[in-house]
Amino acid sequence: MSTKRRITNFVKKELSKSNLGAHTLDHTMRVHSLSIQLSEGLPVNMRVLEAAALLHDIGRPREEESNISHSILSGDMSKECLRDFEYTTEEIEQVVDAIRTHRYSEDIEPHSIEGKILSDADKIDAIGAIGIYRAIVQAAASGRGIQGFLNHADEKLLRLKERMYTVRAKELAAKRHEVLSIFVDQLREESRGSTM
Length: 196
Fold this sequence. Notes:
Distance between the termini: 53 Å
CATH superfamily of the largest domain: Hypothetical protein af1432
Number of domains: 2
Helix content: 55-70%
Number of helices: 10
Number of strands: 0
CATH class of the largest domain: Mainly Alpha
Largest sheet: none
Structural class: mainly alpha
Strand content: under 5%
Shape: globular
């Protein structure tokens, strides 16, 4: 079995412990795919990037109960897994650093190209049609409704386009931002007077 498949199986097991609407295995696999796409032509350690993309959210199920950021938990949880899969100490440190710096809300500047790509891929998956779907699922699951979605869009989603690091990510984000912006404007117009 390939190392990628073994890591993916580990991720499936960890993420199955919680039903987090916007941070499920499909999100992880899209971030992995986007990371590979964004890395084209860049001096990237693919072994590090792929592991970081696959493992970046494995701490999500433990975040709420521990009150520790999932970026810290995911990095810590990755260490033993990667040792088992024969990653070197240096590679493990690079994976953990990329995971630790990927989270938009913590505003930590990534130190490596792998970290920048992971951060970009994670943010890209939060905008466009997929991002709209994920945000609506999360707003519905938490009971925040339409106004909760609109607040999240204003506070975070509509700002992501300006926070990309790589050239390719900026291009993808611009297209997805346009979709998001049109949807938010239309939703705001249609719900005017009906939201609290």
